[in-house]
Amino acid sequence: LNSVNGKLIKWAREDSGYTVFDVARYCGLKDEGTIIAIEEGIVKPTINQAEKIAKKLNRPLAFFYLEEVP
User: Fold this and answer.
1) Rounded to two decimals, what is the model's pTM?
2) What is d(CA 7, CA 68) in angstroms, rounded to the nearest whole number?
3) 2 pLDDT band (50/70/90 cuts)?
4) What does residue 69 show for φ and ψ, rounded to 5 degrees?
5) Which of 22, 38, 40, 53 has the CA that lies 20 to 30 A from 65?
């Protein structure tokens, strides 16, 4: 099973015009460190975090499982 691709989260966030802090705050995180780690592939998001990120960035959750930007 593939896992969430942090590069796609970063691409979608930048494409949507949001900062790392915007996404972190929406997900209820104390700071942006977790989002940065997810984008860099250091940390895998929980399913709850992935769903919140997808909602904030207006993308289907499945988008973040692709290998590269379509």
Assistant:
1) 0.92
2) 8
3) confident
4) -60, 130
5) 22
Average pLDDT, the chain: 94
- Contact (Cβ atoms closer than 8 angstroms) between residue 53 and residue 64: yes
Task: In whole angstroms, give the CA distance from residue 70 to residue 48.
Answer: 24
H or E stretch covering 41? none
**Residues 56, 70: Cα–Cα separation, whole Å:** 19
Backbone φ and ψ for 58, nearest 5 degrees, come out as: 55, 45
CA angle 7, 27, 44 (to 5 degrees): 40
Amino acid at the residue 13? R
Q: Which of 32, 33, 45, 34 is nearest to 5 (CA)?
A: 45
